[in-house]
Amino acid sequence: FVDHLYAALEQQGIQTYKDDETLPRGESIRPALLKAIQESRIAVVVFSENYADSSWCLDELAHIIECVDTRGQIVIPIFYYVEPSDVRKLKRKYEEAFSKHETEKKENVESWRKTLEKAGSISGWAINGTINCDEAKCIKEIVSTISSSLPTLSRNVNKDLIGIETRLQDLKSKLEIESGGVRFIGIWGVGGGGKTTLASAAYAEISHRFKGHCLLENIREESRKHGLTKLQEKFLSLVLKTKDVMVGSEIEGRS
């Protein structure tokens, strides 16, 4: 489940930290994980049946909850075949796990207990195999929620540009994204008039809604330097999310 969720987040262009995917070789795990938690806007916690068995997971969760209090971090809990009340009140497998911790990690038990109580009280997703809970659908909803919680590039980069919002809304209406068809939009004007800025703002605003997307800049200059095939390879690599695209000719690239 976590692998599918990670892939969906990456496909959406959301920078996602997962230790076995992004941890550089030779780097100490604990400092890297703590740093990743501190620098993240959102923490997704997947509570599985055996989650509480791991003191490592409980330490991570404690740090996440600390970041909620000190940094305003958002936590999205996913209760994967466990009830939120099991997590909150330490029932069933969670109770069994804490019985073991009482003898092995007694000094941490009380803080872990408070951490789970707080995390289990946060509204999240319950995935339990019922007919109304399709995992693929849940992952799509989770990714959508996370995406909408993150600031878009256009809001960050172009917020001080006078008139950009009006022009952006006009361009988006011409794109007719919900129509289901294919549209080509040309932006014409004098040099320095803001064409690239507007196109980039539109891309930043809507690209997350597509499975594949790519922004190619300076096409004339780049094609003169490296040829169209290099641009075709770059385009296909970004859209298909693979590094192994080889284009033999411009005709092959177009097809």
Automatic annotation (TrEMBL):
<protein>
    <submittedName>
        <fullName>TIR-NBS-LRR resistance protein RES8</fullName>
    </submittedName>
</protein>
<dbReference type="InterPro" id="IPR002182">
    <property type="entry name" value="NB-ARC"/>
</dbReference>
<dbReference type="GO" id="GO:0007165">
    <property type="term" value="P:signal transduction"/>
</dbReference>
<dbReference type="Pfam" id="PF01582">
    <property type="entry name" value="TIR"/>
</dbReference>
<feature type="domain" description="TIR">
    <location>
        <begin position="1"/>
        <end position="150"/>
    </location>
</feature>
<keyword id="KW-0520">NAD</keyword>
<dbReference type="InterPro" id="IPR044974">
    <property type="entry name" value="Disease_R_plants"/>
</dbReference>
<dbReference type="GO" id="GO:0006952">
    <property type="term" value="P:defense response"/>
</dbReference>
<dbReference type="InterPro" id="IPR035897">
    <property type="entry name" value="Toll_tir_struct_dom_sf"/>
</dbReference>
<dbReference type="InterPro" id="IPR027417">
    <property type="entry name" value="P-loop_NTPase"/>
</dbReference>
<dbReference type="InterPro" id="IPR000157">
    <property type="entry name" value="TIR_dom"/>
</dbReference>
<dbReference type="Pfam" id="PF00931">
    <property type="entry name" value="NB-ARC"/>
</dbReference>
